[in-house]
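Tokens for chain A. Residues wanted.
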């Protein structure tokens, strides 16, 4: 495995060897990093987790839009060829801010990718969506799903406690089971056959969520969906990195790099690259 520093320093123009910038409020976007490494192993990934300001999902739209601008500006310093918004909250409320700040760099949001996959997977046309308070209140998933198929019924629930549980690494803790049962009860009563994990922190708790939802409910991981969508966008633009080298990601956080390192090890089960502390 090659590390970032072994390649030539970034240039002021974009080509297939330029990095893909990814950001989230914290560790949640690592689920997207994992999916990207599986789908596009040769790509250079630059990840920013805004650990100083997590969570985003309980903040106002004005604040979330300001954070979205700062996070994008941070990644733009590295001349990315694409920006992946690995945060449903920002995808729901501030995708236009990312596009504007990205000045023409293609932007892929998790939300559209997850909505699209859910529509393709449901058999009974009843989809559940779980996400942060801000994502659920925005109705963005319902709008995206009904824009594809207006007949589908969407049932949503905010699960604010899932973010701190994921950030604490409480993946199979009894408290996580109790909270999951509480959050999913109403959705399961609606007879959903598909459940969208509408927050990138939630795939960290996927096993528990799947166990509580039961075998009759397909779980849609928006992290996997966005990796597929990123591959398509890069292929269409002729911007896939064909070098075939495996790169470890360049990780940046705005606070507590040590904690981020241990969570990286837990979620990705891989060698932990250096984590750079940056100021937003
Ligand atoms: N992981 C993010 C999302 O997908 C945000 C979680 C948060 O910071 O509240 O919505």
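Reply:
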């Amino acid at each position: 495995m090659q590390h970032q520093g072994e390649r030539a320093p970034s240039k002021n123009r974009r080509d297939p060897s330029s990095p893909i910038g990814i950001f989230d409020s914290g560790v949640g976007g690592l689920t997207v990093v994992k999916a990207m490494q599986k789908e596009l192993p040769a790509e250079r990934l630059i990840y920013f987790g805004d650990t100083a300001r997590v969570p985003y999902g309980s903040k106002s739209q004005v604040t979330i839009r300001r954070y979205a601008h700062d996070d994008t500006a941070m990644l733009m310093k590295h001349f990315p060829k694409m920006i992946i918004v690995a945060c449903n909250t920002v995808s729901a409320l501030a995708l236009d801010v990312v596009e504007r700040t990205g000045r023409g760099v293609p932007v892929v949001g998790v939300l559209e990718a997850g909505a699209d996959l859910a529509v393709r997977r449901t058999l009974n046309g009843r989809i559940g969506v779980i996400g942060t308070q801000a994502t659920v209140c925005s109705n963005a998933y319902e709008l995206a799903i009904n824009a594809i198929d207006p007949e589908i019924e969407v049932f949503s629930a905010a699960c604010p406690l899932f973010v701190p549980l994921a950030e604490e690494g409480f993946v199979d803790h009894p408290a996580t089971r109790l909270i999951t049962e509480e959050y999913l009860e109403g959705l399961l009563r609606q007879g959903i056959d598909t459940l969208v994990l509408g927050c990138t922190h939630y795939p960290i708790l996927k096993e528990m969520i799947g166990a509580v939802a039961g075998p009759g409910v397909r779980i849609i991981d928006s992290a996997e969906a966005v990796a597929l969508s990123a591959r398509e966008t890069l292929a269409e633009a002729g911007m896939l990195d064909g070098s075939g080298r495996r790169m470890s990601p360049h990780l940046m956080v705005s606070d507590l790099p040590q904690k981020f390192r241990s969570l990286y090890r837990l979620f990705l089960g891989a060698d932990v690259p250096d984590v750079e502390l940056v100021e937003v």
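The pocket of D-glutamic acid is lined by residues 24-26, 28, 54-57, 87-89, 132, 135, 163, 199-201 (CB under 6 Å). Strands lie at 20-24, 45-49, 82-85, 107-109, 126-131, 153-158, 194-197, 218-221, 250-253, 275-277.
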